[in-house]
Amino acid sequence: MNFRLTGYIQLSKPIEADLKPLVVKANDDVLRKGVPKGQEGSRITSCSVSKDRILLTIEGTRYLRPHDALVRFKKLVAEELGKKLKVGVRGVFADEYSVTFETAQEPKTDVVVPFADNVTIKGKACTIVFKNIDEETLGKNYIDKIIKLVDEKIRNQYYEGRDEFKELVWNSKEKKIAWDKDPAVELEKAGWIRRTRGKGQFVEGREFTALMNTMRELFVKHVFETNGFVEMTFPKFEPWSVPQTSGHASSIYPNMYMVCTPKTANPKDWEPVMDHYKITGEIDTKAIMDKVASVGIMSYAQCPPFWPYLEGRTIDESSLPLKVYDWSGPTYRNEAGGTHGLDRVEEFHRIETLWVATKDDSIKMWKQAIEMFKRFYDEVLDLEIRLYRVAPWWMAHEGKESEKSTEETGTYDFDIYLPYRGKRDAEWLEVQNASSIGAKYPTAFSVKGKKEELWSGCCGASLERVIVSFLAQKGMDTKNWPKEVADSFNKKMKAIKPLKFA
User: Fold this and answer.
1) Sign of the CA dihedral 128, 129, 135, 137?
2) Are 200 and 339 in contact (CB under 8 A)?
3) Which of 301-305, 345-349, 377-381, 468-472 has the lowest mean pLDDT?
4) Least confident of 15-19, 96-100, 457-461, 489-493
5) 394 falls in which pLDDT band (50, 70, 90)?
6) How far is residue 188's CA from residue 195's CA, in Å, rounded to a whole number?
7) Would you say the pTM of this structure is higher than 0.85?
8) What's the average model confidence in pLDDT over 235-255?
9) Which residues contact 429 (CB under 8 A, 6 or more apart)?
């Protein structure tokens, strides 16, 4: 595995200096630290000064990535030149960063990954090229994640799992595309969102929230109110008995956010943990785990926490169908494969649509739900979408193999084209599903009809994914948006005063 980076260190003022001694010190000492004996790490192969920039080429291996070497050299420059020349170091930047490595398997088709400007694979020899990477992005370790993602995507080409049952059943017309940028990157640059200290989590700013509220209002107007759905509030915490009853507890542990509570509320019992922090400034997580009990999970699939509402009840069919929706809080998933932008996060805001009815009515509502969401994405948001019949999602959650969906039960996925990922044969983004689940949940939670068997269905959508896909096609200029979306958003934006930083 070989890496090559060309970039620069930005200084606070122009300088004239001979950097050869500094480069020698870096190559022979600073960049050797932590590299296994007998192995090569990274070396600075060229270095020159151009006004207020130190221009660099760094070549390296997996034992010390060039972006790590660049940060080390930046620190050395700050220490050495700062004293001698009274110059500050403002940051580092990579003009081009390439990595060459061997994949585990030869790909069957081209591989597209986010942030990479070019991916070339000949046989198993893969070269990925990135351009114009700032210091913040370099520090997020995207490069290593993307290398792993390439191998993962190739493995998935050989995987005969869910994709084996993915059948295209409808697609919209090709739409006019106004943008080719990654919305998550541009939204961060614009200050609409910002990453938190938590993995796969964002603070969603006023502008982004205004767009999110616009989308919510459109969902209510065009989907829920039109089709007789009424809002409810579902819990976002599930005691273990809920996933145990729903069947999720059989397989989703790697993806759960688990919840623990103190075994005791006596402050004396917690004194060692508190004292440890007061002395060290560190959280003693090991000691904490000895003092807590695992009590459940944060909402993973938003419909299971609804079912205790009806649990153990017999419903008069004359009061059905029950048609509700919920978006009262976030859903949490540990993304073991890594997070990316806003389309793969660990905390996202899910719109859950749910119905309970007799069997025949439930199947009809499933088909109506598919049509109402098709119209919403295609006509209201004017997005280019595809509809797929896929393996039922709840069986995958329970670790069960399944055939494709039938005319009575199953799952349909709504995938939306993301231009920044490549041409239309590249990966699309799943933003919505619509499922007929049959009698699974009514049976599991002992919910009965007075005379007939009850069935249920649900639809889940991520507001973040809806917005990412919308911006990916329409861009951030509201002139390119459907009028109803633009008018609602622009009205909300009038109350927002831009935040400026010194």
Assistant:
1) negative
2) yes
3) 301-305
4) 15-19
5) low
6) 8
7) no
8) 90
9) 343, 415, 416, 418, 465, 468, 469, 472
Domains in the chain, please, with CATH?
Answer: 2-159 (3.30.70.1920), 163-256+300-493 (3.30.930.10), 260-293 (no CATH)
The residues that bridge with 412 in the sheet, in sequence order, are 389, 434
The token pair at 346 is: 């660990």
Question: Amino acid letter at 338?
Answer: G
Beta strands in 15-52 (DSSP E): 42-50
d(CA 486, CA 470): 12
Q: Is the dihedral of CA 394, 399, 405, 408 positive or negative?
A: negative
* Per-residue pLDDT at 160 exceeds 80: no
Which ranges constitute the DSSP H helices of 247-340? 271-280, 285-289
Of 461, 486, 484, give the one whose Cα is nearest residue 475.
486
Share of the chain above pLDDT 70, in %: 96
Q: Return the residue matching tokens 């609804």.
A: 306
Residue given tokens 């976002």 in the structure block: 236
Which residues, in sequence order, are bridge partners of residue 414?
A: 387, 432
The answer to whether the Cα torsion of 34, 38, 39, 42 is positive or negative is positive
Name 360's Cβ contacts closer than 8 Å, sequence gap at least 6: none
Burial of 202 (0-12, 13-18, 19+ CB in 10 A): buried
Predicted confidence (pLDDT) at residue 274 exceeds the cutoff of 70: yes
Assess whether pLDDT exceeds 80 at residue 404: no
Quote the CA–CA distance of 234 and 231 in Å, as a whole number.
10
Q: Does residue 158 have a pLDDT over 90?
A: no
* Burial class (CB within 10 angstroms; exposed 0-12, middle 13-18, buried 19+) of 427: middle
Q: Are 212 and 267 in contact (CB under 8 A)?
A: no
Q: Whole-angstrom Cα distance, residue 134 to residue 44?
A: 19
Query: Which residues are marked as active site?
Result: 303, 333, 335, 344, 352, 413, 430, 433, 458, 465
Nearest to 66 by CA among 12, 5, 19: 5
Give one DSSP letter per residue of 417-448, joined into a string: --GGG-STTS--EEEEEEEEEETHHHHHTT-E
Secondary structure element (H or E) that encloses residue 212, with its range: helix 206-219
DSSP assignment, residue 175?
A: -
- Mean pLDDT, rounded, of the chain: 91
Closest C-alpha to 313, from 443, 447, 439 = 447
Q: What are the E-state strand segments in 340-423?
A: 347-358, 385-390, 410-416
Q: 127: helix, coil or strand?
A: strand
Q: Which amino acid is at 484?
A: E
> What does the angle CA 65 – CA 25 – CA 87 come to, to the nearest 5 degrees?
90
Place of tokens 């640059």: 189
- What tokens appear for 33 in the block? 């630290």
